[in-house]
Write a structure and sequence with these properties.
8-stranded parallel beta barrel, binds zinc ion
Length: about 325
């Protein structure tokens, strides 16, 4: 049993309170390899932004849970080395699927976990979330629950269609479970293909697909029910068109990839939304940089020569998100 405090990590409680009061959102970036982690830590340290390092169940399987845990511990030390005196870094389980997965993460030093019971009948979601909260709070680990279903596919999480969170359920859910934050569904979705072309309109000026707007009326209704309570948005990549274009230019085949416009995420950040999950955009930035090197320097075979540019490109993306979308810079 390792407590996250011994690793120099923090939970989300203070961080979210400040973010809700201050009208900004904390970035939650997924990682499963060294270059991603380096890019996240460098970006957070340079901008002095609190940051949530997210690990999905798939990432734990891919990279090994023990290794990931030590990487997160290393991230705190690395951040200090970069001149960030008191790093505000959370290690968070993304989409915990069972009490056992959550418990195992808590026992290994995670400072925050998500229990995703959103696919279950309401009462079962309440019971499962409550069980995780009761265990987690003994160790001051914070818990994210979810109500409503997001569409899309990412790792092991998938759903055909989305169901918006019902504002009339949120008070009952939060009261009964004791969760510290709530992930909601208002039209964001997982993956790089968030919308079909039929769901979008065509911008005649740019020729790009414009997705349907987020359901800000649902967000507002939820905020009225739960004033000041931390709200989380999953599936909030914007799918930068320049990265998609680079990928396609150098042999990729990502047609009609569409994300959430950054203006809408910026608007959401100013509300009770205090955690925004971004994963696909980093995947795109990494893939674009690697493809470009492979296409332009086909004789290159030193991994540092393509993973280095990939890291630089991800770092640039993370800084952009922190400063221009979430507004979390200079908050840690
Ligand atoms: Zn998610």
């Amino acid at each position: 049993m390792i407590n996250y405090k011994d690793l120099g990590l923090v939970n989300t409680r203070e961080m979210f309170k400040k973010a809700v009061d201050g009208g900004y959102a904390i970035p939650a970036f997924n990682f499963n390899n060294m270059e991603q982690l380096q890019a996240i830590v460098m970006a957070a340290a340079e901008t002095k932004s609190p940051v949530i390092l997210q690990v999905s169940k798939g990432a734990r399987q891919y990279a090994n849970q023990t290794l990931l845990r030590y990487m997160a511990e290393g991230a705190v030390e690395y951040a200090k080395e970069l001149g960030w005196e008191k790093p505000q870094i959370v290690l968070h389980l993304d989409h915990g699927d069972s009490f056992e997965t959550c418990k195992s993460c808590i026992d290994m030093g995670f400072s925050s976990v998500m229990i995703d019971g959103s696919h279950l009948p309401y009462d079962e979601n309440v019971a499962l979330t409550k069980k995780v909260v009761e265990y987690a709070h003994q160790f001051d680990v914070t818990v994210e629950g979810e109500l409503g279903v997001l569409a899309g596919v990412e790792d092991e999480v998938s759903a055909e269609e989305s169901h918006y969170t019902k504002p009339e359920e949120v008070v009952d859910f939060v009261t009964k479970t004791g969760c510290d934050s709530l992930a909601i569904s208002i039209g964001t979705s997982h993956g790089a293909f968030k919308f079909t072309p039929e769901q979008c309109t065509l911008d005649p000026q740019t020729g790009r697909l414009v997705p349907p707007p987020l359901a800000f009326d649902v967000l507002k209704a939820i905020e009225e029910q739960l004033p000041g309570f931390p709200i989380v948005l999953h599936g909030s990549s914007s799918v930068p068109q320049d990265e998609v274009d680079t990928i396609n230019k150098y042999g990729g085949a990502l047609k009609a990839a569409v994300g959430i416009p950054e203006e809408q995420l910026r608007e959401a950040s100013k509300s009770a939304v205090c955690k925004i999950n971004i994963d696909s955009d980093s995947r795109l930035a990494m893939t674009a940089a690697v493809r470009e090197v492979f296409a332009q320097k086909p004789a290159e075979f030193d991994p540092r020569k393509y993973l280095g540019p990939a890291r630089d490109n991800m770092k640039k993306l993370y800084i952009h998100k922190i400063v221009n979308v979430l507004g979390s810079n200079d908050k840690a």
